[in-house]
Amino acid sequence: MKIFYLIFYFMSGVTLLACSTVNRHVEEMKNRPNTYLHSQLAPPLVVPSGMEHVPLLSDDIVPPGECVSEKMILLPPQSLAMKVEQGVISKKALKPLSSINLEEREGQWALILTDDRERVWDRLDKAFKDRLIPVLQKDKDRGIYYIVDIEPTKNKITLASPIYQVHLRVTQEQNTEVYLMNNQGHIPNKYVAHRLLLEINRGLQGDKLRELPKILKNFMSEK
């Protein structure tokens, strides 16, 4: 019986000790956020004389009389972009090559070029020369070429040779559309328009038509 009481008293003492320890830790944790109120200030850092402050990333040293560059060019030295930046070549050199599609819209054939109107105008001028398509007149402000279709008159310009208007206009997608009208301002025969636009497309693609020698032209005309 005495052993039982001893064990009981011993366990009670251990329990009371544990509770008092827990209560003390709880009080310490409650007071911990306010401990900074009782902390002491550390003495200020004093840099010894003779030592200079050097930042981790030192500023660029600009020589007297020179200005700091407003922008940094991160381009390969010999790249096309660097040559454009330096003004050696035109910015047009960076423009991607345009694509050309021949499409039929509402019964009318047209060439759709992913290029601006100004460049298409200049490219058309060369295309007509390369495909030997006679140009009677051109109006750049209105974006119209007046061409002669010489196929019906055996590749000769005659009074019977039909005249067509080649129009340029900018689409909503900022592409350039090339389409044909007859000389009266109406939609031409779609088969004729398709044939002429194919010829223009060949010229835009760089397919140059070589003119026959004069002796062969005379021989072909006699036949």
Secondary-structure map:
Elements: H1 2-31, H2 80-85, E1 100-105, E2 108-113, H3 117-130, E3 135-139, E4 144-148, E5 163-170, E6 176-182, H4 190-204, H5 214-222
Antiparallel strand pairs: 1-2, 2-6, 3-4, 4-5, 5-6
Features:
six-stranded antiparallel β-sheet, TATA-Binding Protein, 6 strands, 223 residues, alpha+beta
Following the backbone from N to C, one meets helices and strands in this order, namely HHEEHEEEEHH
In percent terms, what proportion of residues is strand?
15-25%
Strand order of the largest sheet: 1-2-6-5-4-3
How many whole angstroms does the radius of gyration measure? 44 Å
The end-to-end span amounts to 144 Å
Number of helices: 5
Largest sheet: 6 strands, antiparallel
CATH A-level architecture of the domain at 100-222:
2-Layer Sandwich
Model description:
The chain has 223 residues and is α+β, with helices and mostly antiparallel strands. Among the domains are: 30 residues; 123 residues, Outer membrane protein assembly factor BamC (TATA-Binding Protein, 2-Layer Sandwich). The chain is 33% helix and 17% strand. It is built from five helices and six strands; from the N terminus they run H-H-E-E-H-E-E-E-E-H-H. The protein has a six-stranded antiparallel β-sheet with strand order 1-2-6-5-4-3, with helices on one face. Helix 3 crosses helix 4. It is elongated and about 125 Å long. The model has no long low-confidence stretch (mean pLDDT 76).
